[in-house]
Amino acid sequence: MKKKNHRPETKTRNPEPKKSDKDWIIWAAWADRITFEDIFEKTGYTEAKVIKFMRKSLKPSSFRLWRKRAKSISIKHRKKFELSRKKLKEKLNKNIKVEKY
C-alpha cells in the first residue's frame, strides 16, 4: 500500500500564460516588474497598443484601475525604474556614510 503524502500541493496563484497567447499581454501588463519595453521586445506591442488592447479586453472599471496603477508605478518604464533605483542607492549610501561617522 502506498503511503499518502500529507503535504499540500503548491500551486501558483497566477501562473504565467504562454507568450504566444493574448492572455500573456494582459498578465505582463498587470505585473509590476515587467516593463512596457519588455512587452514590446517579446510581442511587438508598443505601450499605446498595450493600452488599446487592455481597454478592449478589460471591463471599464478594471481598465481604470490598471491605468491608474501603471501611471503611478515608475517600474513600468525601464528608464524611470533605473533612475529611481539610482536615486535609492545614492540615498542609502548617504545614510550609511552618515551613520559611520
Question: Could you describe the 3D structure shown?
Answer:
This protein has one domain (22-100). The chain has helices at residues 22-30, 36-43, 47-57, 60-72, 78-100. The protein is an all-alpha fold. The protein is extended. The mean pLDDT is 79.
Number of strands: 0
What is the helix fraction of residues, given as a range? 55-70%
Total number of domains: 1
How many helices? The count is 5
H/E element string? Answer: HHHHH
Sequence stretches where pLDDT stays below 50 over 5 or more residues: none
Content of β-strand? under 5%
Mean pLDDT: 79
Radius of gyration, whole Å: 20 Å
**Which word captures the global form?**
extended
Helix-strand makeup class: mainly alpha
Largest β-sheet summary: none
End-to-end Cα distance, whole Å, is 68 Å
Keywords:
5 helices; 63% helix; mainly alpha; single chain; 101 residues
Layout of secondary structure:
Layout: H1 22-30, H2 36-43, H3 47-57, H4 60-72, H5 78-100
Short description:
The protein has 101 residues and is mainly α. The protein is 63% helix and 0% strand. The protein has helices at residues 22-30, 36-43, 47-57, 60-72, 78-100.
